[in-house]
């Protein structure tokens, strides 16, 4: 998944020509620079604006006390910074320099993946084990986006689909992976088609509800027919952690 989180806490040294500087990323709105040598040698803490523009790629801009304005393209994958600065006397500098990490970024706890896993597991078992159409309002956003062309858009259509399911429909969850606001779950569903199907469902979570869905399905081939290992094993992943999913008011 793309990394669009600014690496707060990170300290780095960048070797521009004609000087080197140390940058400390204090927060997503403040940065401290220390120009270590040359005619521009000084240090200052500035207010910044950070805009993610790619995977580990950020546009960062600020204005200094002197009136100088600076715009950086900070590329943490390629470990390089492109700098454009307008000085108080009107001179314009274009500089590019390699960066060296001095202190790594802080690693704050992010519980979203675990919460989102629990949310997806709740949704899949509520809808496709218990066939509980009322759970749709609790677990899905109102303008839910569906990428399966055989299922109509929106929450109302999903409720109607779940209400129409036969008692033969049964879903078995397996491996669940999560990063940021995305969750992928590997499972097997019976009664949806003529043969059991193995499916990977991918969800995007927004505001504690499921907002968008993609899926890929395959008819299951029994391991008894020579396929090894099996396409799906309900014990392929540890039990999902018990996490309380917040109950949100239905809009």
Give a description of the structure:
The chain has 251 residues and is mainly β. The protein has two domains: 11-103, Calycin beta-barrel core domain (Lipocalin), CATH 2.40.128.20; 112-225, Nuclear Transport Factor 2, Chain: A, CATH 3.10.450.50. The protein has three helices and 13 strands; from the N terminus they run ββββββββααβαββββ. The chain has helices at residues 112-128, 135-139, 155-163, and strands at 11-15, 20-25, 30-35, 42-54, 57-63, 69-75, 80-86, 92-103, 140-146, 170-179, 182-190, 197-206, 209-219. The strands form two sheets. It has an eight-stranded antiparallel beta barrel. Strand 10 and strand 11 (182-190) form a beta hairpin. It starts with 10 loop residues before the first strand and ends in a 32-residue tail after the last strand.
């Amino acid at each position: 998944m793309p990394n669009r989180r600014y690496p707060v806490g990170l300290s780095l040294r960048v070797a521009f020509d004609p000087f080197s500087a140390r940058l400390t990323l204090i927060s997503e709105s403040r940065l401290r620079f220390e120009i270590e040598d040359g005619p521009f040698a000084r240090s200052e803490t500035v207010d910044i604006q950070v805009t993610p523009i790619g995977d580990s790629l950020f546009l960062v801009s600020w204005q200094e006390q002197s009136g100088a304005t600076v715009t950086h393209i900070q590329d943490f994958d390629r470990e390089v910074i492109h700098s454009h600065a307008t000085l108080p006397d009107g001179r314009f500098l274009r500089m590019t320099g390699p960066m060296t990490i001095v202190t790594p970024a802080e690693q704050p706890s992010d519980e979203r993946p675990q919460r989102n896993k629990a949310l997806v597991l709740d949704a899949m078992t509520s809808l496709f084990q218990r066939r509980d159409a009322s759970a749709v309002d609790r677990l899905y956003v109102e303008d839910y986006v569906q990428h399966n062309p055989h299922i109509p858009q929106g929450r109302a259509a999903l409720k109607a689909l779940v209400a129409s399911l036969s008692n033969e429909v049964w879903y078995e969850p397996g491996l669940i992976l999560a990063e940021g606001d995305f969750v992928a779950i590997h499972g097997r569903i019976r009664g949806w088609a003529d043969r059991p199907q193995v499916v990977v469902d991918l969800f995007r979570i927004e505001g504690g509800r499921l907002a968008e869905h993609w899926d890929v399905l395959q008819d299951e081939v029994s391991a008894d027919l020579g396929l090894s290992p099996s396409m799906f094993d309900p014990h392929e992943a540890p039990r999902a952690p018990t996490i309380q999913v917040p109950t949100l008011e239905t809009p």
